[in-house]
Design brief:
about 20% strand, globular
Length: about 150
Amino acid sequence: MRELREWEEVKIPSGAQVKVFPCLEYLSIKFCDQLRSAPSQFTRLKELEIYSMESELPLASICGIKLKTLLKLRIKSIEGLISLPEWLFHNNQHLSELGIVDCPKLRELPDGMNGLNSLEELTLRECDNLRPVNGGKLQGVTSLRRLSIFEC
């Protein structure tokens, strides 16, 4: 599906009590290089993997303000990712695993990471433009058991 450009939001009539993917807990999107949009209706998602894309927009859409159940997030080879939205961490404070690999334009980690007191594993690898991680950004990360930083 390398040519997939849009994964559209399901249109729900106003007042309808329809839930899209009401039980989906794991979502993996890989090698959809052209994808520019994705739905944001994943209210029970616990684990998300997004690999090999040019745009950061699908990640921002899926992890929109509705998502509050995320436990594991793995991001790899997102060319356009410059920063992660701060609300991603404010809304998902039970996140236990975060991996960011080969995101060459990523500049810094958001201040919102400070509140991730359930984060046990953090991996940062091959993020060439990542600025030094300020200790204050990780001050509230009191459960961290594994920290891996390679080639940043």
